[in-house]
Amino acid sequence: MIAGPLALVAAIALGTAGVDGALAIPLRHLYLVPAAWAALRWGSSAAGLVGLVAGLFQGLQVFPMIEREGLAPATFDALVALAAPLVLGIALGRLVDQAGERGARLTALLGTLEARLDRAVTLVGAALGADRAGLVLRAGDGTLAVAGSMAFGAAFRKDSAAGRALETGAAILAVNLDADPRLGVKAVRGPTPSRGLVLPLETGAGRVGVLAIERAGDLGPAACRSAREMALHLGLAIDNAQLELKQRRFAQELEDKVEQATRRLREIDEAKSEFLSVVSHELRTPLTALQGFSELLLERVVPPDQARRYLGHVRTEAQRLGRIVTDLLDLSRIEAGRPLELRPERVDLGELVERNVDLFASQHPRHRIEGQIAEGLGAVSADRDAVDRMLKNLMSNAVKYSPRGGRVRVAAAVAGDRPDTMELTVEDDGVGIPAEDLPRIFDRYVRIAHPETKAASGLGLGLHVVRSLAEALGGAVEVESLPGKGSRFRLLLPAA
Ligand code: ADP
Questions:
Q1: Cα 307 to ligand 1 centre (Å)
Q2: Residues 283/324, Cβ–Cβ less than 8 Å
Q3: Which residue has the higher pLDDT, 152 or 340?
């Protein structure tokens, strides 16, 4: 059955037999075509076979080449081209297999139910000697399905016998279907008046439909009794079929959920590995600097002003290490749902701003760090250490994301738009943040790529921690930013 792809493999082998040199490798990739053909048409086994044959043909050229040239880049490329049809063919084939299995399961499910209903209604009609027999079933969402020899389909009407029985749940016996005053549907069926019997089908879950039979001539009490019994059995059978359907649907849903959960776990695992590698890198950078400068100071005689400079670097790196560790500790508390350890007290924002402005100004000579404290500013009710950490986070971001230097303005004032609230603003004229990224910068591990700040270190945790701390203190944090112009972060805290 896979003669086509195999013939194509042979044709490619013949066509590429004499080709050598730079053109050989691209031509060998042609073997992917029959492998993909087999995968799409017949699934993984066929693709595996075609891939294998393609590999064998290529082997005839590649193995002598390896003997001649050893494992050079060109022979390595040839080996990759040799394995590609087999590997990619099987991978694609497996996807096709999976899709096929699903399709088959669904067809089996729907197909068997319809066929079974049709067969059941034909048998019932024959057993009762009816001219026509039909089933009308109502699905959970109100849609109707019709089975059997009665042409209810498009002609199904609410004022027909079946429609009325479906509506009211009462059995209907019409002595003359064409002249029954209860029914709106009138059609002359033949010289003999047609009897009609419509019986509701009851299941454990209530009424699911009706069984309708029609016969020209008499429909005696024995036939009516048999019809009632059959309606009872049909109801039970439908009940069973629905249960089976439900079970299968449930099994399918369960399978999907397990698949989703497995996928999610795999993603989390990958994210964890990525996180660990970023954290190790972030910790290693300041550690390497600390190690380097301390060794220099211990092992060499360094002039005092140079030693002071080195010690300044040691302090900056130690502070950076401290910030990373504090952020990680805060994050682990937030993740575990443990409350952040906060002790609200009266905190003088003015004093906090002044101290941090002095600190940052001494450490970042390329930036102009300015503080502005509103006159007569009161205190906020917050945890001093937490406010200090939030301010340091915002200020170090302002410096970090203004790589060309520039002004960083820190201000403390009463929030004009909110009663009983104080605001701390940190404004820079750095690279700014695109509007579409603004909503996610407070999410954890989010870092916005910018060519000028590629080298800036960070875990994408600082703002997440700032927001969590601000909210835990009954406050909030807001941001405004214009790419290329700068950013303004606003920390809101309840007044004391
Ligand atoms: P980190 O600085 O460790 O990457 P943060 O959570 O502090 O993590 O910040 C998240 C991202 O938001 C940063 O990577 C950066 O892209 C952006 N960002 C934060 N502050 C600023 C700022 N002042 N100017 C421009 N971008 C900023």
A1: 32
A2: yes
A3: 340
Q: 319 C-alpha to center of ligand 1: Å?
A: 18
Question: For residues 102 and 109, what is the distance between their CA atoms, to the nearest angstrom?
Answer: 11
Distance, CA of 124 to CA of 106 (rounded, Å): 27
The CA-to-CA distance between both ends of the chain, in Å, stands at 82
| Residue indicated by tokens 């060109």 | 74
- Amino acid residing at 425: T
Measured distance CA(169)–CA(152) in Å, rounded: 18
Measured between alpha carbons, how far is 114 from 468 in angstroms, rounded to an integer?
Answer: 57
Query: CB of 27 within 8 A of CB of 83?
Result: no
Tokens of 154: 């498009």
Phi, psi dihedral angles at 369 (to 5 degrees): -95, 120
CA-to-CA distance for 252 and 245, rounded, in angstroms? 10
Give the pLDDT confidence of 343-390 residue by residue, as tens digits. Answer: 889 999 999 999 999 999 988 999 999 999 999 898 999 999 999 999
Tell me the pLDDT tens digit for each residue of 430-472. 999 999 999 999 998 899 999 999 888 888 989 999 999 999 9
User: Residue 315: left (phi > 0), alpha (psi -120 to 50), or beta?
Assistant: alpha
Structure tokens at 428: 């820079």
CA separation for the pair 326, 320 (Å, rounded): 10
Site to probe by mutation for ligand 1, drawn from 431, 463, 466, 491 as the one with most ligand atoms within 8 Å of Cβ, is: 463
Q: Rounded distance, CA 298 to CA 296, Å?
A: 6
Ligand 1 neighbourhood includes 120 CB (under 6 angstroms): no
The 10 Å CB-count burial string (b at 16+, else e) for 242-266 is beeeeeeeeeeeeeeeeeeeeeeee
Nearest CA to ligand 1 atom 23: 398
The whole-model pTM stands at: 0.52
Q: How far does residue 441's CA lie from ligand 1's centre (Å)? A: 7
Task: Determine the Cα–Cα distance for residues 200 and 210; give it in Å rounded to an integer.
Answer: 4
* Pairwise CA distance, residues 310 & 406, whole Å: 25
Q: What tokens were used for 357?
A: 């402005």
Distance 280 CA to ligand 1 centre (A): 19
- The pair of structure tokens assigned to 251 is 């099994």
Residue type at 140? Answer: G
